[in-house]
Prior knowledge:
By secondary structure, the protein is α+β, with helices and mostly antiparallel strands. Helices cover about 55% and strands about 15% of the residues. It has nine helices and twelve strands. It has helices at about 5, 10-60, 65-80, 155-205, 220-270, 275-305, 320-335, 355-370, 425-435, and strands at about 85-90, 95-100, 115-120, 130-140, 145-150, 315, 340-345, 350, 380-385, 390-395, 440-445, 450-455. Helix 2 (about 10-60) runs antiparallel to helix 4 and helix 5 (about 220-270) packs antiparallel against helix 6. The two termini are about 50 Å apart.
Amino acid sequence: xxxxxxxxxxxxxxxxxxxxxxxxxxxxxxxxxxxxxxxxxxxxxxxxxxxxxxxxxxxxxxxxxxxxxxxxxxxxxxxxxxxxxxxxxxxxxxxxxxxxxxxxxxxxxxxxxxxxxxxxxxxxxxxxxxxxxxxxxxxxxxxxxxxxxxxxxxxxxxxxxxxxxxxxxxxxxxxxxxxxxxxxxxxxxxxxxxxxxxxxxxxxxxxxxxxxxxxxxxxxxxxxxxxxxxxxxxxxxxxxxxxxxxxxxxxxxxxxxxxxxxxxxxxxxxxxxxxxxxxxxxxxxxxxxxxxxxxxxxxxxxxxxxxxxxxxxxxxxxxxxxxxxxxxxxxxxxxxxxxxxxxxxxxxxxxxxxxxxxxxxxxxxxxxxxxxxxxxxxxxxxxxxxxxxxxxxxxxxxxxxxxxxxxxxxxxxxxxxxxxxxxxxxxxxxxxxxxxxxxxxxxxxxxxxxxxxxxxxx
Length: 458
């Protein structure tokens, strides 16, 4: 994988920002830890110096000078590992006991801990150039003597140096881990993005059957891939439908156009009287009306499927609409020797376009009239419940085989039994498109015998 491309990923840049943020946060936390450790060490040293000074002062009042010097020597031997130093001096600063040869300059006997410079010559055997600032406590004794207790910082400084080194190591490891995780996350995300890019590139070359692979993790990339794959499936379905529509339009419109052309050609060959011209024009208009109806149906289906129908949209009383259509189609059914039973529950309203809803219900009734034998009873029912409004058109005709019920909803699909009847195979396609536009469900079921077409509006 290209490292330069990886370094330009948003995931890595985000990881770098977080790494810098956490590095600053960790540095602040470690700095506070170092400061508190330093304060703790200082407080422990000061407490130790006070305790030692108090113990020596009590012993000075209770012991003889020789015994006190022995005690000081014992204290020094006991504190050798911790670098404890003691001085008992008279009022002029002359050493009386202890391992220091003189009183440090600038140190007051005020019973407070001060950081003072302990020079090399004050400690017998001290190597040259080992001057250092140590915490020291000077105390004035009741007899006029002065007591000095001080402590070397070698161990404390070693502890602080170790703590400081540990904190630097923790900070370095934390930043390195953050950067490493950023690189790993960037590489993982880049692989997922590459899968999207590769698939889109293949689809752009015309391989519309390719789909984005899923990782199975159920994360946001899988969710995005599922949505894109669903969109590609929809596009593929629309492309297939477009090819089918193109083929069917070319096939179904060739016949009426050829009839019109042949009729006009034959009519123009010889002189004819007015009735013959009128008959030819009437036949041509009939064929052209069929073509116009086909194109209008295709336009309305396309607008309904795209959700871009520009007609009025608002409350529609399906009960009143069904009553109007029922009166019209009842007369047509009587002309064929049949009946139309109308069962309408009042005030069943939905939100939609009245024109499209009327055309959908009319198409269902029209199909029931066209594809059933003369004299077949029909039924139009409108009911409203808590779940929604239901429109049912049923007949007692031959029905539609179960295997064909989904296919007849496609454009220009006509079953073999319907080849001899007028039409273009767009009636149920328009009903299905109107149902989708109105968030309704179209169901074709068996009436035993016959067909039941249901439109359920939520």
